[in-house]
Amino acid sequence: MRGLTLALLVPLLAAPAAQERPLPDFESFAAQVKAHLATDEERQSGYMFIERRTEQRLDGSGRATSGSVKVFEVYPGLPGQDRYRRLIEEDGKPLPAAKLAQRDRDRQKEVEAYAQRMASTSGKQRETQQLQKEQRKYSAAIDDLFRIYDVHMMRRESIEGHDTIMATLVPKDGVKPLTDDGKIMRHFKARAWISESDYELVRVEIEAIDDLSIGLGLLARVHKGTTATYQRRKVNNEVWLPAQVTWTASARVLLVKQLRLRGIAEFSGYRKFTVDTSTTYSPPSS
Fold it and tell me: What is the DSSP string of 160-203?
């Protein structure tokens, strides 16, 4: 009996000890995280994938009153441009072949026009300058993030088998943002889960802590309590890529129309893209 009692107690005694393993040094861990941060556009630039986007309008009780579901094939964009999102299905119905063919022809014209611009030295220089400008803007936004937020590492948590460090991010009082992105950040608090081994963002949850005006309040006003979650998944055991984004929001548009919205974007079927990759893409079965 005594042996059985000890056998039952050992796991219980060992568990707290495992949890007491010190968290990483904040400064060195944060430096690694900062070095690994990259935009989704950059991460996804070498892949084609399927995006399924669901958007719903809600009533005062939180019930959906209307909505839409769209499925896209997504391809790398031209340098300096957004990814090419090829709508293939809407509300369960495939896009008509004629309409899809027309959009493909329009896209082909864009690609040909881009190739002509890049044929000149001045066109290449402008493109390079634009890319450098975007990179500087992103780096400045990352610097602002670490200036604006008071970051605290809280504990370890496992997400889909990966050890992560969960941290809280709360805007500091009296810190003036230096970028437009920073001006938006200071309206949100967040919790983030970072891969302890890869220093990669695995999950983040954000919540508006006050109202946020867009376009000086003339375009929209996002209300306090708006939430969003963002999750990445390690693909092919080599790169962390977006898996799901969800959001709920209450907003007033054009100072008149009150909207309550809910949405989810799901990303799947990642395939590495090269100029030789077939563009015949079958969405994964549901």
Answer: TTEEEEEEEEEEPTTPPPSSHHHHHHTTEEEEEEEETTT--EEE
